Amino acid sequence: xxxxxxxxxxxxxxxxxxxxxxxxxxxxxxxxxxxxxxxxxxxxxxxxx
Length: 49
Prior knowledge:
By secondary structure, this protein is an all-alpha fold.
């Protein structure tokens, strides 16, 4: 019973933290990827088609 309560508390704490970390880091990764592709596009001459 104590193990179950401990598991519930741990999952209840870790789950929001994990989603919060994901929500915080995902935009940074996306923006960095976007900047990288934009810089790459700017560096290489635009090809038609």
